Amino acid sequence: MTAKQIEAAAVKLPRRDRERIAQRLIETLRTKREKEVLDAWVAEAERRDRELDEGKEVALPYEEVMAELRASYRRR
């Protein structure tokens, strides 16, 4: 089967199947290092979410954080 034939058959599949195939193909393009970095970011995001849920951390509004950053740069 050629790539064109595979593509023609794939676009006729249900959306869910196309998403699964697309995700799998993308995964095959990632280098080992890219996968390690992505896995580390996912673990970090899960840790932060867990800490928020447990009340160990408090989320600040984006606008507040950006205002503080801008103010700190102006003071320099």
Description of the molecule:
The protein has 76 residues and is mainly α. The chain folds into 2 domains: 1-30, no CATH class; 31-76, no CATH class. The protein is built from 4 helices and no strands. The protein has helices spanning 3-10, 15-29, 32-53, 62-74. It is elongated. It starts with a helix and ends with a helix.
Write the layout of secondary structure elements.
Elements: H1 3-10, H2 15-29, H3 32-53, H4 62-74
Q: Work out the helix count.
A: 4
- Helicity range: over 70%
Spatial gap, N to C terminus? 63 Å
Q: Provide the number of structural domains.
A: 2
Structural class based on helices, strands and sheet pairing: mainly alpha
Number of strands: 0
Give a summary of the structure in a few sentences:
This protein has helices at residues 3-10, 15-29, 32-53, 62-74.
List keywords for this structure.
76 residues, mainly alpha, 2 domains, elongated
